[in-house]
Here is the input.
Amino acid sequence: MADPDLRDRFLNTLKGKAVDKVPALSVTQTGTVELMKKSGAAWPEAHFDAEKMADLALSAHTFAGLEAVRYPFCLTVLSEALSCKINPGRLDIQPSPGSNPFAENPETLELPSDFAERGRIPLIANVTSILRKKAGEEVPLIAGMEGPASLASRLVGTYNFLTWTLRKPETLKEFIKVTGAVCSRYTEVLYEAGADAVCIVDGIAGPDTLDPKDFEIFMRPEYEKLCRAGKGIKLIHICGNSTPILKSISECGFQGISIEEKVTDLRAAKKLVGSKTKLIGNLASSGVMLNGTCEEIKKEATKCLEEGIDILAPGCGIAPKTPIKNIKALVEARDEYYIKLERYGCSRYIADV
Here is the structure.
């Protein structure tokens, strides 16, 4: 039986309300080889079959204890819907884009009138409905998706995306306006199907790739539009050290920002975002989560909690070969942290800065 407070805890955290514990979950991909064996749903089939996708997504909650169900397991759904060829991947490798259909004619991109019927979009909506029935009302559903920058880079190619910031800035601005509109429309589809939150993954927009000045020019206006459009909880994941743009992202309207372990000073990060948004993360997915011992994971998780993380989570997508016991250790660390607080009569309250 699921904890009846999981969904309320998640939503209340993001709304700035008091909660009994910091949620412990993942807003990024959760499919692992061990969970595939446990659930009987494996990649690549689980990327393209609604029941298998739902079963694998739910298994991270059922078998690993994560306090949300996050799906799908790749960042190609919107790319595929806009005519990008997709490599299906294999058991331990996610699907990837195999073409850049708008590299030569970016001005021809538009939001299709039949968008909601394209590619796997109806499948993901169906998965949402299936998961709501299987998980019940007590467990939050988090749908992941490409963000406007990631989608644009796949449709025109990463090289073009980055060089056009200098060579064709107006072309790129107009293109991102369309990919932003696509993302907004997709969030509507997901909320209508029953998702509690969407997590936009836009790694290429981070300072490790895109200059913060270009972030302000190209991405911030589209993020603000996206956050204003429609209802629902909107989260964002930015790869790398997002510290230089955290303040700007926090002003766009996202309820939560997922950060990697490269954001090394959580206290400073909390000061940058203040009360405008919540920070999610930031255990190293390809480091301690994949290769560490349970004790090492608990040590890192406790550090995150002590420094004020709002939602305890891996800092990026969970690596497919991550052991289930390592995922469980993240949740156990949170529980043990609060047991200690109760034992010593302490309360965890990170004041708004």
The longest strand covers residues 141-146.
